[in-house]
# Entry
Amino acid sequence: MGALASAALLLPLLSAAPPATAGTWEPDSLQRQFAAAAERQGVPPSVLLAVSYLQSRWDAHGGAPSVTGGYGPMHLTDAATALAEAPHHSHGAEDARGDDARAPRHGARTVTPPPTRERLPDRLTTLDRAAALTGIPERDLRTRTAANIEGGAALLAAAQRASGRPASADPADWFGAVARYSGAEDTATATAYANDVFDVIRTGESRTTDSGQVVTLAAAPGVAPAPGQVASLGLRKPSSGPTECPRTVACEWIPAPYEEFGDGDYGNHDKANRPVSQSIDYIVVHDTEASWDVTLGLVQDPTYVSWQYSLRSSDGHIAQHMPLKDVGWHAGNWFVNAKSVGLEHEGFLTAPDSWYTEAMYRSSARLVRYLAQRYDIPLDRQHVLGHDNVPGTLTSTIPGMHTDPGPYWDWAHYFRLLGRPFTASAGPDSGVVTIRPAYAAHQPVYTGCVTAGVACAPHGSGAVRLFTGPSTDAPLVRDVGLRPGGAESTTGVNDTGARASTGQQYAVAERRGDWTAIWYLGQKAWFPNPRSEPTAVNARGTVLTPREGLAEVPVYGRAYPEASAYPAGVPVQAVSPLPYRLLAGQSYVVGEGTPGEYLFAPTFDTSAHRVVRGQEQYYEIQFGHRVAFVRAADVRVSRR
# Structure
């Protein structure tokens, strides 16, 4: 009762705070809101700032919820409200297995109704508790930054009281409270989350938020908390099982089933012996298009499809579903599946203003670094692919390929966390560029997030739009694979036909003033790239072009062996070109060389499985928004 009475005195102050969408701010108002809330609730300012950074990087996102229903800088969760308003639909009709040696397995996802508040775990209802602690209306907690920060500070203070510890001014005394704030149900996830928060405290951070304000947390390298405080929180121990994860993340074993149905059918993945049988060359980033509980239900369905890892948005928790030696059905391209690891991130591509937590970005980056080191996978955009960068296997499969994680995934931030930021490596006249717009400020209009043809909510994006000429009045470039009739591309959020994404590298075709043209899907594609606000950085790279005497060379969606390489009993897989043309005089950036390979695995009995390798060599190239493959014998390679 006393807490509610005290909170009531704050209502005039908090209600007068500017809304999250306000266009004018005092230069240090957000910083002062953190300081004031910390003082009123008795929380060390560094703890409050670091928790907020791990959730939202201090952004308000215009009052829109995260992919798990978290609002504002403190990510106060009201999933019942957020998920009721979010669009629930998938974004493609691909066969996730992507192997025409078997009947297609599309794995169509069942649309489930949004959960009620009563069915939600505590980690998804923290806004309710913040309202009860402070007396601040739920609407204000969702939309006003000062109220949101006050609510988060109150939750931290309540967690400290529940632990029986005093409201100490020493940040080191708050490890247990921070762990409880995560909402994690197990000790490993709560500890990993709190470790990340205190890592932010020790190293410090400073950035300009989405409201244009600079917020700073000074480094305090001497802070040494006591992780043992988590033991008193009464959390369960996770099911570690045979997990393959770095020690710095929380990872539990939730296995995908390998089950035979009869009549030659089985699911939901293939047994293999990688990397002995085949190298693992790719990591594929997905979003789930489903909530966490639905995602886990799907991957445990033997009639559905599969991937190696799922990552939870609210706290970065990881679930592993199969040994890395086995092959998941996730990318829609059997060549890529056989040589990749799939990471599903909880989220919805088309949710208006959807955003992912810093906790999930950091957890994912640690997992990717671990996988890259283990399998010697280069940390670049030719090997760390979005699902939307995986090519269709045949002309007929191109239109149905999925488009996640979409234009709102922050590749620039992700690669900074990977330790491989996209920086310039060449002068202004270089022959290669790396796409890299300023994510928060770069907000091209997308349509179709909720209603076809209607503009999505404004949001930062890591993708640039491509035109047929150096003008925004020019038509968008065409993708004849997506639209065989030759119609131009659209601004649809799921239309990848005229889109280049952060980190992707392309050969420069021409420069004209503030515009740069690249070779893209067999044509010149222009994008604005002014020196004052560049959307790409200059780079050096290896490129290829048709060898002398060839007017054009075929482009493939998979690198399969030549017919003579197949042994008796293994059907020859067609090496069918895609409907694109790589013409003489055009250049494309090379990812790496790869031998023609095909994993023959059409049966539950693995004794008949074979890896077929040919003499034919291929190069992976950045051809459009998706990668592609060309025969090494058809091209010449040079350095730019």
